[in-house]
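forwarding from the other thread:

> can someone predict this with nicotinamide-adenine-dinucleotide?

sure thing
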Amino acid sequence: MTASELINPATEELLRTVEQTSLAGVDDAVARAKAAQRDWARLAPGDRAAALRSFAAAIDAHVDELAALEVANSGHPIGNATWEAGHVRDVLQFYSATPERLSGKQIPVAGGLDITFNEPLGVIGVITPWNFPMPIAVWGFAPALAAGNAVLVKPAEWTPLTTIRIGELAVEAGLPPDLFQVLPGKGSVVGERFVTHPDVRKIVFTGSTEVGTRVMAGAAAQVKRVTLELGGKSANIVFDDCDLDKAAATAPYGVFDNAGQDCCARSRILVQRNVYDRFMELLEPAVKGIAVGDPAAKGTEMGPLVSKSHWESVASYVPDDAPVAFRGDAPSGPGYWFPPTVLIPERSDRTVREEIFGPVVAVLPFEDEADAIELANDTPYGLSGSIWTDNLSRAIRVSRAVESGNLSVNSHSSVRYNTPFGGFKQSGLGRELGPDAPLSFTETKNVFYAIGDA
Ligand code: NAD
């Protein structure tokens, strides 16, 4: 085993070293998970439900500890990190109802009885990115466990600590130790082995479109199931008939949350030309008012970027001659700080087309509804987005026309554990969360029982 060093992004101090799982370690984990899954699937549905509820209770008892770990490892503001830890509990609680409700169908046919069963797939590999370590892990592992599978999670190299702790809490809560295992390590070792190992029956991958494309290609060799949650370049469309004060006051939070390291970030603000100047006047104080600083301090709204190399990548989008309209504040000194930055580029600029994954937003004017829709869809991505209008018909027309999986009208909400989440186009494949997520961790088996004559 080798070890990797974790750096606190707010202080640049060494936080901890973490052992990296080897190839042989992955194979051993898969073999143990395979055996544990058989026992888990045989348990009474009520017992599996109770085990998931105990797991949720263990998370609930450690929300503050998990939140503090995320602050130190990822630089998330404490308020956000506390919400994220509570979200793990809530998602587990939501899917703890699944084992007792995963009913198939009885289909009327001639000559017998036809029943469908939702059979678990077996061992599931969940590969997560560094931006939301806790929520993204639980979106995969909770419905997968609930549907009767074993789960192996590979957290991102930079941010494994909360996932490792969640794995320990699962065991403390009474889940069989081999059923749910956390395997920190490299994407090129652990992640790739999930893809090539024949006993890993499905990959849930969240990360860049580039790596997701490789995962999908590799999975094709075994017709392995995949759910992919990939990049985004979402639009926040502001029409002239909306509550402009509210649209401008909330726009920064639609893109700068988690320092813009959010696949749902509305990183293109599209504003109808006749209200563009007024919108920019209102946006400036809102951006400058964002509290950027120590993520451990209550009231902090934005922390640092996750790492030095990611800081360099984000900074490359804002060279000295960048078309900056205005910027917010950021601390100086140690830490990977980057101020909220508003650009007014041309439509063809790379800042309008590429996912920057930092606190940088491009504001563009549009002419009319048709132009707004064309501009919003002029991207290979389609994950999220917002539409600001007080015209109900327009809200319906535009929300149906934007090619994106998660839209909000007159708000910036994207994620609720009880509603489906996922992307159009190159933002992904499949849906997580919501009532149907457990089905994506099952195969439908149809059995016809012939009924003989009495
Ligand atoms: P990444 O693609 O670099 O890494 C994601 C994970 O894949 C990591 O755990 C990494 O170790 C692993 N990995 C790397 N190479 C691999 C390989 N060859 N085989 C298997 N696994 C491999 O992404 P990142 O930089 O950690 O995260 C940022 C990206 O994630 C952004 O593009 C963002 O939009 C996306 N994201 C999407 C969603 C969503 O729900 N759509 C949510 C969060 C983040």
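Residues 127-132, 136, 154, 156-157, 187-188, 191-192, 195, 206-208, 211, 214-215, 229-232, 263, 355, 357, 383, 423, 427-428 surround nicotinamide-adenine-dinucleotide (CB under 6 Å). thats all i got for now
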